[in-house]
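Need residues for this backbone.
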């Protein structure tokens, strides 16, 4: 099994790999753009409506105005002039009048444009719109749908000379049709054109948006932004700004105080002729639609308040994504699947709450889509990694231990989550060494093939006994066997199991001798030494050739004890440590203290006679 350090390293690789993949394909290639803007919209909704700029007032040419003033559209310049003059007389500081001042309607109402233009010239605070239009070129009288030309329609000279400034009134929706950003500079044929809202703000600050463009941008804190990547900090859904019907102004129902010293924006909001776009905010009816006029007001308010939204740079975005991804991967690698999914959900919810807090407090937009995509991918990647790693461990454990113990024990080992490591560790175990006494003399009396057959049958019988008591065969050495009880799965009665196995091995060898004695072969005698103590266990070897084994002083003692069975003329010898654990289960006889090779102090040894009748041995 992989160590903790290797698991952490692998999880870091998974996290970094996913972060790099999502950043390149999601962020740089734009695969997550639509998800990202949709999540940013949720930030607006969760934030709720904010206080609008008190000095911005909207004059709406709404359905009521069309029905009560003049149902025809477009209105004549005389009506617009009347509306404009009433606003000017009531002391409007700026009148940004969104009206078609272009050549396309110049001759619809002969003689009325001059009066309107004169009113605007006299007021000195008018801002007029210009627009880009895309038209289909015609060839031989036939429109070519794929032959699109962008046409710029500015006010005719009559109005261009009369107004303070002209600004581009086009909105630039995202590909899903939602307005989220505004350009504060538009480059067209070598000229820099301000947007309609910037022109109005320039008149409010008395800084011309074209003649002193850089000064105005610096004054508004826009110097460090990209011209086409500035978010509109919408103050709320449709209807958030103070809006007055044009009919109420024309009828004289509006008090001068409602207009005086205000930045007034005039535009069409009537349902049949007014432009409407979706915005991040949803209204009470669930609609996200907002009039073109109110979108201009939100843009103007964003600039006047310098309440801009900040996004991370690409480099910072990547670093941020890597940190979150690595943290998530390291969180998932040690937990179960259900807990990993719970942690993933907590990370996403917690991160969104952090994003919402920063959005509300500091106007910061954290990366949303890349994080929302990365965390589930990392979770799935960690699960796949763990599944592959677990399968490899199972194959390794099964291949390693199936050579030593029965398949049921191997299956238990694989299922036991707390005993899957085969790395080196210290543990308590009981070692059993057995050897056929005088086997060299016996084998000299037999043919080679008879020796092999005898040993094979002997090992088969002994293996069955040892497996019965969950002993793990560590190795066969000539005619000797080393078995370990307590590995790989420790049990409270490992010492008793070892002694019980030794007694049964003696009984089995007697039956085996009865069989081979009939064939005029010499009988076999077993010497068995058993010791309980602390050993070092682990996988020794290289890759597939590695073997799980136990080493240490306790192993050596058991081996040396087995060699004392012949001079002490006994079949099964156990150490003091083993005796302490099995004395209530077996009848024993003290053999006194004896010197064990490799140890300075003598050890007390015991002879095992038989199992106690009431030993309650759970085997």
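Answer:
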């Amino acid at each position: 099994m992989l160590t903790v350090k290797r698991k952490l390293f692998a999880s870091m690789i998974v996290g970094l790999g996913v972060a790099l993949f999502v950043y390149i394909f999601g962020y740089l290639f734009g695969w997550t753009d639509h998800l990202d803007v949709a999540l940013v919209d949720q930030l607006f909704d969760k934030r709720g409506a904010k206080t609008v700029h008190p000095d911005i007032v909207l004059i709406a040419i709404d359905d009521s105005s069309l029905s009560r003033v003049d149902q025809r559209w477009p209105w004549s310049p005389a009506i617009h002039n009347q509306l404009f003059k009433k606003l000017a007389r009531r002391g409007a500081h700026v009148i940004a009048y969104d009206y078609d001042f272009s050549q396309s309607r110049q001759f619809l109402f002969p003689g009325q444009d001059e009066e309107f233009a004169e009113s605007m010239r006299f007021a000195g605070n008018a801002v007029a719109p210009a627009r880009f239009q895309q038209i289909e070129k015609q060839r031989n009288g036939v429109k070519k749908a794929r032959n699109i030309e962008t046409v710029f329609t500015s006010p005719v000279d009559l109005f261009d000379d009369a107004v303070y400034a002209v600004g581009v009134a086009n909105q630039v929706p995202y590909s899903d049709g939602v307005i989220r950003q505004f350009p504060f500079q538009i480059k067209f044929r070598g000229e820099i054109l301000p947007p309609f809202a910037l022109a109005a703000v320039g008149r409010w600050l008395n800084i011309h948006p074209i003649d002193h463009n850089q000064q105005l941008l610096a004054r508004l804190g826009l110097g460090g932004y990209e011209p086409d990547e500035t978010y509109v900090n919408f103050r709320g859904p449709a209807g958030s700004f103070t809006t007055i019907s044009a009919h109420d102004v024309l009828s004289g129902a509006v008090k001068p105080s409602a207009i005086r010293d205000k930045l007034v924006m005039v535009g069409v909001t009537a349902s049949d002729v007014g432009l409407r776009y979706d915005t991040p905010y949803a209204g009470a009816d669930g609609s996200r639609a907002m009039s073109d006029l109110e979108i201009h007001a939100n843009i103007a308010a964003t600039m006047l308040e310098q309440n801009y939204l900040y996004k991370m740079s690409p480099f910072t975005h990547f670093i941020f994504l890597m940190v979150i991804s690595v943290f998530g991967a390291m969180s998932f690698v040690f937990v179960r699947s259900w807990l990993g999914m719970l942690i993933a959900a907590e990370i996403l919810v917690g991160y969104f709450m952090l994003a919402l807090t920063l959005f509300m407090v500091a106007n910061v937009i954290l990366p949303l889509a890349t994080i929302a995509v990365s965390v589930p991918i990392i979770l799935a990647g960690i699960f796949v990694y763990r599944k592959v790693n677990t399968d490899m461990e199972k194959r390794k454990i099964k291949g390693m231990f199936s050579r030593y113990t029965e398949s049921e024990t191997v299956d238990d080992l694989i299922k036991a989550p707390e005993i899957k490591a085969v790395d080196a560790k210290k543990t308590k175990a009981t070692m059993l060494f057995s050897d056929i006494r005088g086997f060299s003399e016996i084998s000299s009396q037999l043919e080679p093939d008879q020796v092999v057959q005898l040993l094979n049958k002997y090992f088969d019988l002994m293996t069955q006994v040892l497996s019965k008591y969950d002993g793990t065969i560590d190795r066969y050495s000539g005619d000797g066997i080393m078995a370990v009880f307590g590995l790989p799965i420790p049990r409270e009665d490992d010492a008793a199991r070892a002694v019980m196995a030794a007694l049964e091995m003696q009984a089995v060898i007697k039956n085996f001798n009865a069989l081979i004695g009939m064939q005029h072969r010499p009988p076999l005698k077993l010497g068995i030494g058993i010791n309980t103590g602390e050993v070092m266990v682990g996988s020794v070897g290289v890759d597939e050739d590695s073997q799980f084994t136990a080493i240490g002083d306790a192993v050596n003692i058991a081996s040396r004890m087995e060699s004392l069975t012949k001079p002490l003329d006994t079949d099964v010898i156990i150490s003091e440590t083993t005796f302490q654990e099995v004395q209530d289960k077996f009848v024993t006889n003290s053999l006194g203290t004896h010197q064990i090779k490799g140890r300075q102090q003598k050890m007390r040894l015991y002879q095992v006679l038989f199992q106690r009748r009431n030993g309650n041995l759970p085997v």
